[in-house]
Amino acid sequence: MGGRLIVYVLFGVALLCLVGLYADTGLLSSRFLDAASQTKDLFAEASSSLDARQSSPNAVKVDVLETGNDQSPGFLSSPVGEVLPPKLQGLATEHQLRRDAESNIGQESPTLAETKVAARIPLEKVEAKKPEENPPSLAETPETKAAGPSPSDIGVTSQETTLSSKELAEATVSEPTYGFYLHVFEDAAAVIYQVRQIKKFFPESPVYMMSDGGMDFGELCKREGCTFKLCPPANDRWHPWPFFRRIYDAALSLNTDYVIMLEPDNTVHGPIKQQPAADAGGILVRDRGFSEREHVEKLAQQRVPRFKWSKKSMSAGLAGGSYFRTEALLDALSDENMMKIDWNMLGDRASKEIFSSDFAMQYAFAARGWKIAPWEESAQMDKHKDKPLTGKKDSAFRHYCSCYPGGKPTYNIKMNPEDKNLVKPGGFGMRSVCQLCYNHTRYIENWGSAKCTNRLPFQLSEVLIDRHHPELKTKPCDLPWLCAPGKVRSSVLEVPATANISAPQVLEKDAVVQQTDVSPPDQLSVPSTSAAVGSDAAKAEGNKTTYGFYLHVHGDPAAVIHQVRQIKNFFPDSPIYIMSDGGMDFSELCKQEGCTFKLCPPANDRWHPWPFFKRITEGALSLKTEYLIMLEPDNTIHGTIKRKPPADAGGLLVRDRGFNEREYAEKLGQQRVPGFKWTNRAMQAGLAGGTYFRTEALLDALSDENMMKIDWNMLGDKASKEIFSSDFAMQYAFAARGWRMEPWEAESAQMDKHKDNPLTGKKDSAFRHYCSCYPGGKPTYNIRMKASDQKLVKDGPSKYNGLNSVCQLCYNHTRYVKLWGSDTCTNTIPFHFSETLLSRHHPELKTRPCDLPWLCAPGKKRR
User: Are the C-beta atoms of 34 and 87 separated by less than 8 Å?
Assistant: First the structure.
């Protein structure tokens, strides 16, 4: 006890000296002096309490608190099991009152309230292990570590620990503690692997896993000693109300200084070497900003005067691999505080993306004045297998783009047979992939209570519902998360529909957590609008040489092979031209199937009109057909074309879309077609995969000379960088020559959240285009290549692999010729981005040597 008393005395003397020094120099506010004085009193009270307990024979044992609906969930326990002085219980009491209030509305208590929780013990300083340069081989899941006794309930094992006086004294100065929140759905092998990696590098850290209506990992947590919570499906990544509540509950359960959020596609590579410097942080997302800054700053300044939501804060991507200071998380994401934000206003003035979890958390933390910053322990992996796009190479956590070579590593893991008993279906029959589909009333009607979501009601505004779900005004509801099935919405009222549509039933047999059975290429299950091909195909409109197919590809060989064979099935007389943008070599496939293949240098041409236009015009010249149909690997083909194209170009219907600088484009178009108007109807044609172009119009609009009559730098300056993406750029190019465009609803369908019913276009359309939200993922990306087809593809030249570009606004004609020796596959007329655009989108090039070889000479600074 004597040694301990000395520690407290020395601390108190140092604190008083510091206070005196700052008070004498006038540098310390009266508010801080009061806080320092209170802190001194608290240490005196704590020391007195501790001295009184020292006389007990069990003084060095850690007390274990039983928790229930009427007790604190662990926050009322001190780091060594002592009950804290009353003044230190404020934060815990606030959270407990919230939990008590929730019990009045019939909400289930979180998992922690049903288990015994181990008292919080400071982490021992563990010798840092050398971070792995690359993750361990993901072909096999690591062996399971011994998890100790399995609790009868899913949770953290209760225990008694005897601590020495020295350890007790060190409790107040321990290293920051980390708890892990795993946001999961399925991907069982990835989740099991991830839990074991956490146990390997963070053996003392608690783990809390939440499944959004997906698989049940209860048995895994029993074995590995983690906490598991199965919540109703809510697609919470797109709905802040359940998402915030679930991570909030996790933070209460974990009871650590920081919460590290991981998703199944993250990999863990070592211990944390750089402690968090802010209240929240994640991967660096360069040049990102958020709208409605003033609204957010005004809210924040109620708590933190003069708070500013900085550009550095906005560049922190709060995805998997992010950290959150528990204090900040429990404040920013609490039911009450998150509801102080006008989410409907943000969704109206900004975009629906503000509801996605990464964006929504930025708004929520900023609205309470908490500091956010990028974190170097979280690396973003991109096109390079070993070198991060942002973050350090030895970061503890890695996040992967879908473009990562070979796919996201954890998704390639195969489950060990002995692990199959650790997971089972969650039993929810309704799987939500719907965006902007949250309604508090419907949530409770579907699931019986407000468990796992905000207890304060929220409904999306009529403005947002009409904008994103316009079909609900004219047809019976088929979105049970948003409205009562079988009814037609009329403003805020729901009226019975004339159609007799029964509500969906939640059936065990409909559980969506089973592994998808992926068929081989020739057996991919897609609805066909033609039962037979042959005489029927010959009767279809213009199937002789009317249509030629231009396939814009890079990788995805199984999808490309399947697509070529589907074209041959439904359009046996139509020629096919495949262009690979610096990707795989499909020449052997074309030798076998009778198509034309062109391998071009990598240019990320989807974001650069000069190579994109040149390549499709060369495809049109080769095909020599009346119309060119452009396809991408994620399109599916379902039959012959039954209705001939009505315009010069057309594709998916994109409702309510418009383009800037209409008058400029019309003025150019009127030079060829007097009186030409770029109509709203024309602007709604999405010229993506599944688009047709009249060859005559294409060769005119996209020619080197005519496309260069457009002032692209002016458009990029006055509009946005999106005008350079192929879909937008072709709209400008065709309008600037006075060609007519309109949606091709008859034969090009946009598939969205419903597996069989298109969002736009006809159900019997010949071509389908898929959003990333499509249930089960885009069909062609689930195809596995047959062993017999592997000889039909090969990697492109090694010089291409090293310079594959995913960079946007990274085109320079001079650099293109320098890299590839000629202007093959790009516009022969030079184009360079203006200094205005380069400074805006690549400001780093003014202060550091160039690392964008497509844009400037590597190692040199631009002037």
Answer: no
